[in-house]
Amino acid sequence: MNHSVAEIAQALAARFEGDGRLQIAKASEPAMAGPDDLALAMDPKYAAGLAQGAARAAVLWEGADWQAMGLKAAIFVARPRLAMSALTAKLDRGPGIAAGIHATAIVDPSAVLGPELAIGPYVIIGAGVKLGAGARIGAHASIGRGASIGETALIHPGVRIGHDSHIGARFIAQPGAVVGSDGFSFVTEEKSGVEEIRQTLGSREEIRAQKWQRIHSLGGVEIGDDVELGANVAIDRGTIRATRIGRGSKLDNLVHVGHNVEIGEDCLLCGQVGIAGSARIGDRVVMGGQCGVNDNIFVGDDVIAGGATKIFTNVPAGRVILGSPAVKMQTHVEIQKALRRLPRLAAAVALLQKSVSKGGGSD
């Protein structure tokens, strides 16, 4: 489906100049743009690419001389990345799940289905499931007994929603995401080596054989409105109470959320973040890729953790942290500076030792 320049400008809440009726098929980088593409040159550093491509329309920065660039129309934006959000939403055609319920889908008779659904091939919907209006569910997805999902959800192929998971409106789950798998929770008849070490911080009286017994997961998962899960996200169900993810939070590919974890609102967890059981994460927390959070600790509101940060203790609200173990970012920078000085420091100490040794031998 094509869109006119004027329609796109309206979606971006931006002004345009030139031929607003010009039809656009898709967005493109400037150098690779064809005549029906909208070139994205929202910064002067991308302007040179327009001459290499064949775009007739572009999204430009305020004040750009679009006519000198040989364009027939231009849309002007002040905040490029924000404009990208509206632009991609306008041009996204979605996964193309056909309206209605596919003949191969298995839907339990007790399921309560809202109107205007699109349910793909081989989808399985269990007993007592509640689906809100406008949900789109891709092929081979499954939704377990007693689960509920709000309106206009988009569940991509291969997603697994476990039983008794309760999810809000406008939920998006990318392929392979799993909500409501059992928590990783086991116990030994006698105190295990792990329990002993946690108490003694390293010493062990005796090493003995131990066998693990499962602690079953009776809690579910509760997810607020406007939450998005990346590919292969794994969210464990709670042991007794539910694992919870607050409204508006976004989890990137391969994020793992352990049992009983509570994540606040509008958090952003990047790829391969792992949060151990019963940890609590405040609102608007950002964690870079491969961050790890210890079990049973609290990370306060508005904390920002750089990539690969390992968080072993509570973090107060608003702190910016980095490193393993996590420290204030400024402290981490100073530690790294000191580490770079270590070879020179070691060489200087060696010279001093040699000097002292020679001096001592002459007495």
Overview features:
single chain; 12-stranded mixed β-sheet; 18% helix; Udp-n-acetylmuramoylalanyl-d-glutamate--2,6- Diaminopimelate Ligase, Chain: A, domain 1; alpha/beta; 10-stranded parallel β-sheet; 363 residues; UDP N-Acetylglucosamine Acyltransferase, domain 1
Overall description:
By secondary structure, this protein is of the alpha/beta class. It has 2 domains: 3-91, Udp-n-acetylmuramoylalanyl-d-glutamate--2,6- Diaminopimelate Ligase, Chain: A, domain 1; 101-327, Hexapeptide repeat proteins (UDP N-Acetylglucosamine Acyltransferase, domain 1, 3 Solenoid), CATH 2.160.10. Helix content is 18%, strand content 27%. The protein is built from 5 helices and 40 strands. The strands form 6 sheets. It has a 12-stranded mixed β-sheet. α2 links the parallel β5 and β6 (57-61). The radius of gyration is 28 Å and the shape is flat. 34% of the residues are buried.
Question: What are the SSEs and their pairings?
Answer:
Blueprint: E1 3-4, H1 5-11, E2 15-18, E3 23-24, E4 26-28, E5 37-41, H2 48-52, E6 57-61, E7 73-77, H3 80-91, E8 100-101, E9 106-107, E10 112-113, E11 118-119, E12 124-125, E13 130-131, E14 136-137, E15 142-143, E16 148-149, E17 154-155, E18 160-161, E19 165-167, E20 172-173, E21 178-181, E22 186-187, H4 193-200, E23 213-214, E24 221-223, E25 228-229, E26 234-236, E27 243-245, E28 250-251, E29 256-257, E30 262-263, E31 268-269, E32 274-275, E33 280-281, E34 286-287, E35 292-293, E36 298-299, E37 304-305, E38 310-311, E39 320-322, E40 327-328, H5 329-361
Parallel strand pairs: 4-5, 5-6, 6-7, 8-11, 9-12, 10-13, 11-14, 12-15, 13-16, 14-17, 15-18, 16-19, 17-20, 18-21, 19-24, 20-25, 21-26, 24-27, 25-28, 26-29, 27-30, 28-31, 29-32, 30-33, 31-34, 32-35, 33-36, 34-37, 35-38, 37-39
Antiparallel strand pairs: 1-3, 2-7, 22-23, 39-40
